[in-house]
Structures are given as C-alpha cells and as structure tokens.
C-alpha cells in the first residue's frame, strides 16, 4: 500500500494524475467511480484536463460503486445523477458507458447479479476510485460487512445516514435506509485501488485502514491484502498515522 500525504488542495490533482496516466496508457480502461465529496476535486481536475484537450474518455467504460434504494429516477442525490453532475456529463464518455447498480429494480437480487456480470463482461475494473466513511465503510459496506461480499442490498448505519444528511437538507429522515453496494470482494478484484480522503473526520478510518488489524468492523482494513493500493490523503486525514 502506497500512502501519499499532500496538502488538501493537491489531493484532487494527485488523483487525477493517476487516473489520467492510466487512461492515456490504456484508452479503453474500465474505471470504477465513487460518489461522495472526497473525489469531487479529482473529477473537477479530470474535467479540466479533458477540456484542455489532454484527456479523452471516449473509449472508457465506468462502473459506479453503490446506489440508494428507492430514490426516484430524477432525485438529485441518486448516485447515478450525482456522478453525472460531478463528472461523467462533462467529459466525452460514450452514451451508455456508465453503469450503476439499479436501486429501482423490482428484483433487487437479480439486479445485483446482473451488475456483477456486467463488470465481469467488461473484463473487470482497471482502476477503482474509493472514498471512506468516518466509520471505515467502503462504498456502502458498513462495519460488520463480510470481507468476501459481493454486490447486494445493505442497511445503512445511523452514522452513515447522519453523515450523508448534509446532502438531504440536513434531515436524516430523508436519507434512504437501504442501498445497493458492490461488495468488498467485488472491490478487491479491481486491479488498482485509489482511495482519497481529506479532513480530520477521516483520521481514525485512515489510521485503521493503514495501520489497524484487518477486521470486518473496519471494512477498509481489508485493502491491506490488495496488491496495488494508492491512498491519497491530506495532513488532517493522515494525522493519526
Ligand atoms: C458515502 C459513499 C461512499 C463514500 C463515503 C464517503 O456514504 N457511499 O462511496 O466513499 O460515504 O463520503 P464522502 O467522500 O462524502 O466523505
């Protein structure tokens, strides 16, 4: 595991360097995209590089990590809409090149299986972007998640719903209770994991991720078993290392 500690304002550009060099080297890359605030600066940097003519995503395919269950198709916090707004609508990804778990599926189990199959059919994920929750969750794999888990429905913890209430008018009751998420086992199959975190609220989760014993109670710790992980953090997120 490589841990890169940089000033807060450089986390996005260091992440964009890693994504950019992959996409230039392998234009048909399969990217795994995370939502949440952590990668927003990186996406902004990638959009700028695309607009400057440095980067094309025309042959890239992308898979998002997770999705709330039951949010209406046009809800602004539906992760499909979030990733479009933060990144994919602003670059030249082909129509239908972005896939996400279907939080509106009538048959949730079948939708999860189909999602896993779509990732496999694409040849797997080359580079998976990740954030981390304050309680150590990765995607929506909350503490206690099986470290071998696959894409499935999960119940969000109260802590995650409180953390995400800021996106729902600060009203935790508006935050969905269920989500679909790639499993830890699914995420671990990506060939390179790029985890971004900023701020003191993430310091304990980053400490556990890098230095803690591997435990389902801190799901991020399983990344210690991955062969190619890059963690890009600012000084505050690194303050407990
Ligand atoms: C959210 C998402 C995760 C994200 C994490 C951290 O609930 N499901 O994919 O990485 O929690 O979010 P943020 O980057 O906003 O702190």
From TrEMBL:
Site entry (Part of the allosteric site), positions: 145, 152, 154-155
Protein name: Glucosamine-6-phosphate deaminase
Pfam families: Glucosamine_iso
Reaction(s) the record says it catalyses: alpha-D-glucosamine 6-phosphate + H2O = beta-D-fructose 6-phosphate + NH4(+)
Keywords on record: Allosteric enzyme, Carbohydrate metabolism, Hydrolase
Keyword set includes DNA repair: no
Role, per record: Catalyzes the reversible isomerization-deamination of glucosamine 6-phosphate (GlcN6P) to form fructose 6-phosphate (Fru6P) and ammonium ion.
Regulation of catalytic or functional activity: Allosterically activated by N-acetylglucosamine 6-phosphate (GlcNAc6P).
Pathway(s) served: Amino-sugar metabolism; N-acetylneuraminate degradation; D-fructose 6-phosphate from N-acetylneuraminate: step 5/5
Active site, per annotation: 66 (proton acceptor), 135 (for ring-opening step), 137 (proton acceptor), 142 (for ring-opening step)
Family assignment from sequence similarity: Belongs to the glucosamine/galactosamine-6-phosphate isomerase family. NagB subfamily.
Name of the coding gene: nagB
GO molecular function: glucosamine-6-phosphate deaminase activity; identical protein binding
Superkingdom assignment: Bacteria
PROSITE patterns documented for this protein: GLC_GALNAC_ISOMERASE
Domain annotation Glucosamine/galactosamine-6-phosphate isomerase: ranges: 21-225
One annotated GO biological process: N-acetylneuraminate catabolic process
Cross-referenced SUPFAM superfamilies: NagB/RpiA/CoA transferase-like
